[in-house]
Design brief:
Distance between the termini: 44 Å
Oligomer: single chain
Number of helices: 14
Largest sheet: 3 strands, antiparallel
Structural class: mainly alpha
Strand content: under 5%
Order of helices and strands: HHHHHEEEHHHHHHHHH
Number of strands: 3
């Protein structure tokens, strides 16, 4: 145990947050998968517990392995990752696996493992944009040499994600604009990019809506209509989530006593936060929210202390992306936003989604680990200098 703790480096607070959210994930997933167990596993409720525990353990291993890699290497890795992400997204649009009426997945042959190519592309783009902003710091204020080259990969990746997954494309687009703002890109250029993105989305919706089959546009329209019209008959998910939250009260029904897990669709994924509040109360829901805010604060602190621009942008971009996704998920669960289909990072049941999130956490810790190492070296140098002065 001591040997393991000795090899764990980086921000200790983030490690605590990760362990806490993993524990919450295992408890919440076990509690919310009872209906799944009786529907598909003849009542074997331990099946999903063991499966999710294995997925979580592997995710923790990915955090450890990725945090041991020196963060400058991710600059090179991002180039290869982005090069792979584009054909993966194209393949998903053409031959992707459709689950829950959304063609977002790629199924790997032989192992039969499905993953969302957008999860991989999101991580690749954030790393690549951090690299690009870092390399263009000398011309960052220039429109043609600085701004336009860094917008091209953003527009390409977001455009490829958009047809099947609007919420992920929008979230990634906002994250990239935040990264540009942190990277000292002119604010008027960022506003122009936001306007161009909104205009492109409007044109895309008009074109798709004019076609005989409107695809995901119809789904988006139904979700927005259900959200704005509280009396709509297809507002079932939001109503069940509100019942779960209201019945939880302040202290909750205690673990395993949820009743809405039997009625709420995606209780183990998109609406797991509602189940957490039902079982652990508003106090439990607030603590989960607080831990995500702590993660954001520590990520910003790492970015502030990072001696290099790439490390700062990497920590800030990945931290913001994870917490932004968490806030969106929780806002949907409490009916502040329409249904988006975004899982709660590190908590919702899922395999590859949790693994990509774990990789992002590990990269943030890698930046933190390099800061710790530099502080130790500087501290030893100062101590040696003082010792030399005392001897003289």
């Amino acid at each position: 145990m001591q040997a393991i703790l000795k090899n764990i480096k980086g921000d200790r607070t983030i490690w605590v947050v990760v362990f806490f959210l993993y524990i919450v994930s295992i408890l919440a997933v076990y509690s919310s998968t009872g209906t799944l167990a009786y529907r598909f596993r003849a009542g074997n409720t331990e099946y999903y517990l063991i499966k999710h525990a294995i997925v979580t353990a592997f995710g923790l291993g990915l955090v450890y392995l990725s945090h041991k890699v020196r963060y400058p290497y991710y600059s090179r890795i991002s180039q290869l990752a982005l090069f792979i992400a584009i054909p993966l997204l194209l393949f998903t649009l053409i031959r992707g696996t459709a689950i829950h009426e959304a063609q977002r997945w790629i199924t790997l042959p032989i192992v039969n493992l499905s993953f969302q190519s957008s999860d991989f592309a999101k991580l690749a783009l954030i790393m690549y944009l951090a690299r690009l902003i870092t390399r263009k710091q000398d011309v960052i204020k220039d429109l043609h040499q600085g701004f336009i080259p860094m917008t091209l990969p953003v527009l390409i990746i977001c455009a490829l994600i958009l047809p099947a997954n609007f919420s992920t494309a929008a979230m990634l687009f906002v994250t990239c604009m935040v990264l540009m703002f942190i990277g000292r890109v002119r604010f008027r250029y960022i506003l122009g990019l936001a306007g161009a993105g909104i205009f492109a989305l409007a044109v895309f919706i008009l074109v798709i809506s004019a076609l005989p089959q409107s695809g995901r546009i119809e789904t988006w329209n139904n979700r927005i209509s259900s959200f704005t019209n509280k009396e709509a008959s297809d507002n079932y998910q939001a109503e069940q989530a509100k019942i779960a939250i209201a019945s939880g009260g302040v202290v909750g029904k205690l673990p395993g006593n949820s009743t809405q897990r039997n009625f709420l669709p995606q209780a183990y994924s998109d609406f797991i936060y509602a189940i957490i509040i039902e079982e652990y109360g508003l106090a439990g829901g607030f603590i989960v929210l607080l831990f995500y805010l702590i993660l954001l604060y520590r990520g910003i602190r790492i970015a502030h202390k990072s001696p290099g621009t790439f490390g700062a942008l990497l920590a800030a971009g990945l931290s913001f992306s994870l917490v932004f996704q968490a806030i969106l998920n929780m806002a949907v669960a409490v009916n502040l936003l329409p249904v988006t289909g975004q899982p709660l990072p590190l908590v919702s049941m899922g395999g590859t989604s949790l693994w990509f999130t774990s990789l992002a956490i590990g990269i943030i810790l890698s930046v933190s680990r390099s800061i710790e190492k530099e502080e130790i070296i500087n501290g030893e140098a100062i101590t040696s200098a003082r010792t030399a002065q005392d001897n003289n």
